[in-house]
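Researcher: Re-running this chain for the archive, since the previous output was lost when a drive failed. Same request as before.
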Amino acid sequence: MSRLRRRMGRLAAGVLALAAFEGTGAALAQQMPAMPVTVANPVSRKITESVEFTGRFQAWPQVNITSRVTGYLDKSSFVEGSLVKEGDVLFAIDPRPFQAAVDQAAAQVKITQTRIDLTKANLARAEALKKTGNVTDATYQANLQAYQEAAASIDSASAALATAKLDLNYATITAPISGRITRQLVSRGNLVVANSTSPLVSIVAVDPIYFYFDLDEASYLAYQRASRGKLDTGGKDPTLKVEIGLSDEKGFSHKGTLDYLAPQVDAQTGTVTARAKVANADGFLAPGLFGRIRITIGEPYEALVVPDVAVSQSAQGRTVIVVGADKIANPRVVELGPKFGSFRVIKSGLKPEDQVLINGQMRARPGGEVVPQPTKLDVPETLVPDPN
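Model: Regenerated structure tokens:
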């Protein structure tokens, strides 16, 4: 019994010692001095939100050059991979057979015209003799028929001459569009066949070049509401501006205009194909290049901006610490907007006069007192969205 009493005594002494220690710790915590922290008022800026998508450049139009006549390739007049202009001579097919056909068709036209002149003169004599009764009606009808046949045959001869001249013209192959030409696929001396499916060469347009990408359904709806009617420009150039960055660029250095949205949503992917037109006078942008496009969504609006480091995650959501006039630090739940560099847009939860803690979060205890050191935020007038 005495042993149990001794154990109970030691346990009671331990509890009293622990209570004394905790009391001392609480007293020390209450006696801790308020720590200095940096605070600042949020800054109001006009915000324009944007979304980004990935896609690839494509050329349009792209033309495969084939021959419209059959003949032997005589020469080529371009440098492979170079820029060519519409109307530049690319190939020449041996023109001699086509020139001979033109000469033959021209001679046939002359023969036919001579027949017309002869039959016309014979018909005039028959008409004169018919009036005096010195020619039979059958002879007159024969002369009339011969003249009509000759007059009709001139149309056929003229059409044959026009066809021969067209074939001679087709023997010289010119560029139908301006653009960059590919390597030559048929060499000099080969027989080329009219309208063959195998091209002699291809031309890819370079200026402008087009950027194709897919909009998700949510972005498509937001964009349609924000830009309702702007794509219908009555035949004029579209005014919806976009920015494009290449795979080795952090920013968006290439400017363009959105000029096409597919008329329907792909039910399999839930996306809408879109296209932007981009100037490419120097031919730097090549078809197939990967890129990122940034599109403005909605109208500009006024919002408060704070440093992104002032925002933290808590069980209640995204919060910032606001220091009141009583120098007490209290967390405030806020609704975030987009990030612009090192700054974050706060859509709701803050007022312009709030003092937001921007440095020293580790020294501020929720509900504890701090020593606020006010500063002024240096926020650019124009905020550039983060490149993702």
